[in-house]
Amino acid sequence: MTKQELIQQIKRKKSFLCVGLDTDLAKIPASLLEEEDPIFAFNKAIIDATKDFCVAYKPNIAFYERYGIKGWQALEKTLNYIPKDCFTIADAKRGDIGNTSSYYADAFFNTYHFDSITVAPYMGKDSVLPFLNYDNKWVILLALTSNEGSKDFQFMTADNGEKLFEKVLKTSSQWGTSENLMYVVGATRAEAIGEVRKLVPDHFFLVPGVGAQGGSLEEVVKYGFNNDCGLLVNSSRGIIYASNGNDFAEKAAEKAKALQQQMEVAMKERQFI
Amino acid sequence: MTKQELIQQIKRKKSFLCVGLDTDLAKIPASLLEEEDPIFAFNKAIIDATKDFCVAYKPNIAFYERYGIKGWQALEKTLNYIPKDCFTIADAKRGDIGNTSSYYADAFFNTYHFDSITVAPYMGKDSVLPFLNYDNKWVILLALTSNEGSKDFQFMTADNGEKLFEKVLKTSSQWGTSENLMYVVGATRAEAIGEVRKLVPDHFFLVPGVGAQGGSLEEVVKYGFNNDCGLLVNSSRGIIYASNGNDFAEKAAEKAKALQQQMEVAMKERQFI
Fold it and tell me: ipTM score of the complex?
């Protein structure tokens, strides 16, 4: 999917919501466990219920990988089921030396047909470039994450005053363009989103941490919104586990719709739609 | 596998060689492509040929993941085939927020029965701890990698003069012990191995980059060897692709044996064996 196509979808659906498919057999309704493929059955119901309110789906690859071959089969079926007008994100946090990264890119872009993959920056340029060699595919590079451990290294300050996450942004923004490179920018520190926005004014941000992790949508929009919207705000547990009863899909739709409506208001206020 | 068991294997086999199973259908002998599972057929022959000369095997997960379900099946068969006295490393470079990391740990430690997994440090403590919660399982954390891109961020210098890779070592060595935590330390800068050794005197290092990437075994031993040996030196392409003809296994054995013999000399010189 191109940047223009993504922006069109955001305008059409009046939403920049990404639904995280962190599908966990211990959390889905017990009735689904009798299905042949409970993970896919759950995802299918969630996708049917939320597809009008979101522009992206983000399967968290660990949740599939842990179930071995059955998990990968469920992932493949899920990818095939997601409507083609939705942007798909492999939340995989991969990254390795060049030829290895090229094989991860092959796995997620060719074998599973994702539009994008999250990548960790520690190994530098040649670990990221292979993911950028695909037309209409995207790298979503970790910059500032939303977890407690983000403080351990990401805020390390260089002798010139620059923090590690700032160095990652400045350096990596030379490797790609805002047409094939986005950043993970956590929502738990909304002001930090503003600092990141100054460094990379044109790039889309994938923002986790709204909802379950405590971030506020309003603050994210205040600090992160740009002329192209520039935001994909993810919610996983807050939507997909809104209920663990047989009304899980209905409740997921309600939660997704509520977020979509807040997003619609925010975009109208900014005359984006 | 415990640290003491690993040291015993090193002494018994007079080797601290790790064979990297970067198995690529484009590089294995054409005759194997007719097998039902060419990847496993290749790995089986390589394991048979090299198991007397090495103490560890390191499948590079990207090479399996790219082939989808067939790749994972080949990986599972390979893990089941590796002799139980060999240490196994999932070279996966994973790492994510806590509950996600716990699922990656589940995948590699429970589903595939690896002894260890390589982990990227960017997301900090809570992304690494879930991998350390297993008895006799290991994290091998990226510290200083052997690729060109290692210069982009790993040598960033803080206002107190500390480099990022040094901060990663100092900080993370508090999260585990030398009984469940090793480090990836690239061989392309042998002096740097000495700097790392000073910071973490007791930990094992997984050293890639000897051979194809230009590192010298002699230098690695000079700077990295400690009282427990403390080294697992990996060679992938230099061994498994020593020949692309039908003598590939024989040639792999020769290459592995040559490295084992150099290691034996080095360990005898240091009166370790």
Answer: 0.95
